[in-house]
Write a structure and sequence with these properties.
With 227 residues, the chain is an alpha+beta fold. Helix content is 51%, strand content 20%. It has six helices and seven strands, in the order ααβαββαββααββ. The strands form two sheets. It has a five-stranded mixed beta sheet, with helices on one face. It has a two-stranded antiparallel sheet with strand order 1-3. The relative contact order is 0.12. The protein binds adenosine-5'-diphosphate and magnesium ion. Magnesium ion is lined by residues 132, 135-136, 192.
């Protein structure tokens, strides 16, 4: 009868632990990556048949970092509280992560989120969900195009649209979104949307994707408006 409580306490501990681990592990990953790159540059001629080992090691470190990013970009080792959130504020933080990424990979961002929209949720979880969707959009642009984000309130729901002019998806891919480890990318984790769907569900929200191959993709997310 109190197993529910125990379960949520355990979840809380796991989630705090994960946040600490993510924070602690990121730095050594970065340092090791840097050292490997230095070694690779300085020891161009090494033992025969080992030339690729540096690259493999760096790729594997990058993979570990990407997995952390998909789960724990905003994670902080503190209680996971649910608050009333101002959507525009949340998007401002998300922009801080996404704009540099867009500058790096190509493509740009157009955002129109009015300051009046409020929903209930955990700030770091919500931001993680949004980043994972927008990151996919930027990656789908393959160097050029636009990601448009807009939001409004309708029938006591806050509605968020994230639309890109990227590669798009066919029916076969659309129906597999959110499946763990489902990826079509060389260096994908296939974990981003799984995490995102779970977060939106916990927040009593819904998400739908519309997409057309070669034209683009639009995600529509609905949350109950806070009042
Ligand atoms: P990953 O990004 O690591 O591949 P995700 O769960 O984030 O994992 O996405 C799964 C797959 O869904 C992607 O590999 C891609 O094929 C497809 N996808 C998701 N979002 C988009 C998008 N905006 N445009 C095109 N394809 C997308
Ligand atoms: Mg992704």
């Amino acid at each position: 009868y109190n197993s529910e409580l125990q379960r949520s306490e355990k979840m809380e501990i796991i989630s705090q632990l994960a946040a600490s681990v993510a924070h602690e592990v990121r730095n050594p990953l970065q340092v090791t990556r840097g050292l490997l790159q230095l070694l690779e540059e300085r020891h161009k001629v090494v033992v025969p048949n080992t030339e690729n080992y540096y690259k493999l090691a760096i790729d594997e470190l990058d993979r570990a970092s990407t997995i952390i990013t998909d789960f724990l970009t905003f994670a902080k080792p503190q209680m996971e509280q649910v608050h009333e959130l101002n959507l525009a504020e949340e998007f401002k933080h998300v922009e801080g992560i996404i704009v540099p990424l867009a500058n790096l990979q190509g493509g740009h961002l157009e955002m129109s989120v009015p300051r009046s929209l409020r929903i209930m949720g955990n700030s770091s979880k919500l931001k993680q969900a949004l980043v994972n969707i927008i990151k996919n959009s930027i990656e789908a642009l393959e160097g050029s195009g636009v990601v448009k984000i807009w939001a409004y309130e309708e029938h006591e729901q806050v509605v968020i649209h994230i639309a890109d002019s990227g590669a798009g998806m066919d029916e076969r891919i659309l129906e597999r979104l959110g499946e763990p480890y489902f990826t079509n990318k060389n260096k994908g984790t296939g974990l981003g949307l799984m995490v995102t769907f779970r977060i939106i569900e916990v927040m009593q929200g819904t998400i739908k994707f519309k997409s057309q191959k070669g034209v683009g993709t639009e995600a529509m997310i609905r949350f109950p408006a806070a009042r």
